[in-house]
Amino acid sequence: MNRKFVRAIFPGSFDPLTNGHLDVINRGVKLFDELIVAVGRSPIKNPLFTPEERVEMIAELIADMPSVSVESFEGLTVEYAAKKKANVILRGLRSLTDVQYEFQLAMTNRAVAGIETIFVMTSEQYGFTTSTLIREVAALGGDVSNLIPKNIYNRLQQKLADSR
Ligand code: ADP
User: Fold this and answer.
1) Which residue is closest in CA terms to ligand 1's atom 17?
2) Contacts of 145 (CB under 8 A, 6+ apart)
3) In the chain, N or C terminus with fewer CB closer than 10 Å?
4) Which secondary-structure segment (H or E) carries 9?
5) Residues with Cβ within 6 A of ligand 1?
6) Side by side, which strands form the sheet with 68-73?
7) For 86-118, how does the pLDDT look when each residue is reduced to its tens digit (9 = 90+)?
């Protein structure tokens, strides 16, 4: 049977990437021929890491995943997807609260560009993990080492030390 080659992009802010994001990447690897982790360059509220730093940290994590790559992008996700000739947008779902927003986003992307979004549910243990909370908890001295990969934890500690 002829099977279609599927290239997916996984867009997000990843400031920083969490174990939840990594879980989504690991699930995506099983589903798609190629997966591009796409770090949005658009300004977000109180960014901690620059897009370059985020790409660098993610590159370290995916070094042993041959079908996965990472880069940053500017502007509309659907335009970036078209440029990369991606057939699918991958997004993660943590809880029902994510569904409403993600539903709107997916419908809009399908309406404007005809691209499909595929959702994967995260592992239960990461259902509460958000980059925003990690930034806030870490800044206040909380231990987030169980929620993010080790290389990102080290960079985060360094970043917080530099800003003190
Ligand atoms: P954005 O600002 O585009 O939402 P994020 O980096 O916060 O960027 O998230 C990118 C994607 O990863 C989104 O689909 C989001 O729902 C998903 N995601 C974020 N955190 C988790 C998690 N803990 N488990 C599973 N998916 C997650």
Assistant:
1) 92
2) 153
3) N
4) strand 7-12
5) 12-14, 18, 20-21, 23-24, 91-92, 94, 98, 122, 126, 129-131
6) 68-73, 34-40, 7-12, 88-93, 116-121
7) 999 999 999 888 999 999 999 999 999 999 999
